């Protein structure tokens, strides 16, 4: 394992360096150098590609749950990459997802009613597949 760490720390992808330093080496996510690295993540090519579909209003013009490119999936990927928390530029995406989660469409079409309750396989709930299938 030790031979892999220097390789990971030299990656051109800042999220790999971030995860290595925080998750493997145990550096504090609140340290100045890690905060600086998160700023690098914010402008990385991978993040720019994820956000490339944002319109002038900050929203992504697809259904929020469109697999891998809707706002829900983009926010999940940004979180996984170590995107810095509190970035106001993501508020329109958050609003887009919350609007969908509180919509009639979500209530009637995407939450399948089973035995009087919601199907617990729906990803936005963050709940694992029901064992009652």
Question: How would you portray this structure in words?
Answer:
This protein starts with a helix and ends in a 15-residue tail after the last strand. The chain has a two-stranded antiparallel ribbon. It is mostly helical. 47% of the residues lie in helices and 3% in strands. The chain is elongated, with a radius of gyration of 18 Å. The protein folds into 2 domains: 1-42, no CATH class; 44-126, no CATH class.
Concise synopsis of the structure shown:
The chain is mainly alpha-helical. The protein has helices at 4-9, 14-24, 32-42, 45-50, 71-81, 91-101, 104-110, and strands at residues 113-114, 117-118.
- Which structural class best describes the helix and strand composition? mainly alpha
How far the N terminus sits from the C terminus, by CA atoms, comes to 40 Å
Q: What is the approximate shape?
A: elongated
The largest pleated sheet is described as: 2 strands, antiparallel
**Low-confidence segments:** 125-133
Pattern of helices and strands: HHHHHHHEE
Overall residue-averaged pLDDT value: 86
Estimated radius of gyration: 18 Å
Please report the number of helical segments: 7
How many distinct folded domains? 2
Helix content: 40-55%
Number of strands: 2
């Amino acid at each position: 394992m030790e031979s892999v760490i220097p390789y990971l720390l030299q990656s051109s992808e800042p999220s790999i360096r971030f995860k290595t330093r925080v998750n493997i080496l145990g550096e504090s996510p609140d340290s100045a150098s890690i905060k600086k690295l998160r700023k690098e993540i914010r402008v990385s090519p991978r993040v720019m590609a994820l956000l490339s579909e944002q319109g002038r209003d900050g929203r992504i013009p697809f259904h929020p749950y469109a697999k891998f490119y809707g706002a829900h999936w983009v926010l999940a990927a940004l979180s996984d990459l170590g995107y810095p928390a509190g970035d106001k530029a993501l508020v329109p995406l958050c609003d887009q997802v919350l609007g969908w989660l509180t919509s009639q469409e979500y209530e009637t079409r995407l939450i399948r009613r089973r035995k009087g309750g919601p199907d617990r396989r729906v990803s936005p709930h963050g709940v694992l597949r029901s064992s009652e299938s």
